[in-house]
Amino acid sequence: MKIGYARTSTIDQNLDLQLDALTQVGCEKVYQEKISSVNDHRSELENCLKALREGDTLYIWRLDRLGRSLKELISLVNQLQDMGCELVSIKENIDTSTPTGKLAFHLFASLAEFERELIRERTQAGLLSARARGRMGGRPQKLTETEKVMIRQLMSDRSNSPTDIAKRFGVSRATIYSVTKEVEMAKS
């Protein structure tokens, strides 16, 4: 039996391309989910693996739809082989039922992991370079230093409620508490 697995990383992404490819190769059942592969619990992948029987083949659109790391992909392929099942990746034209397919699987999985590591390395280098030039990453600060000083003064007076102060500055209560905590952390 041909069983398919389709996954996107976010709810906003569309599965149609993967579903069309899996239907075209004749998958009788397709498990689909919209969840990051970083998430340890992918319930539809678990259901898919439970549904596979000896002699079945798991079809995926691309290797990165199945797992993010070489270790994870190899573990899944070994699990499939232990079950008497094979893996076919449509986009990379990999079929683990053949020696060439097994070799191609390991090469593509290694290259995919290498590419992710390069992206991570370049991202880190870019962030360090930006910081060296005085640019900080992340969301811009909503409050100025002057506003933070005012918030701390207002919070020191117990008659002012954090909710009222938050409304006055257009921020959440959590932000008010963060601002007051900054001083405590600086003192310790």
Mean pLDDT: 88
Q: Which regions contain 5 or more consecutive residues with pLDDT less than 50? A: none
Distance between the termini: 64 Å
Structural class by helix and strand composition: alpha/beta
Strand fraction: 5-15%
Number of strands: 5
- Percentage of helical residues? 40-55%
The ordered string of helix (H) and strand (E) elements is EHEHEHEEHHHH
**Radius of gyration from the alpha-carbon trace, in angstroms:** 25 Å
Sheet with most strands: 5 strands, mixed
- Helix tally? 7
Using the alpha-carbon principal axes, give the shape: elongated
Strand order of the largest sheet: 2-1-3-4-5
Question: Could you walk me through the main structural features you see in this protein, from its secondary elements to its overall organization?
Answer:
The protein is α/β, with parallel strands linked by helices and 188 residues long. 53% of the residues lie in helices and 12% in strands. The chain has a five-stranded mixed beta sheet, with helices on both faces. β3, α3 (70-82) and β4 (86-89) form a beta-alpha-beta unit. α6 (162-169) crosses α7. The model has no long low-confidence stretch (mean pLDDT 88).
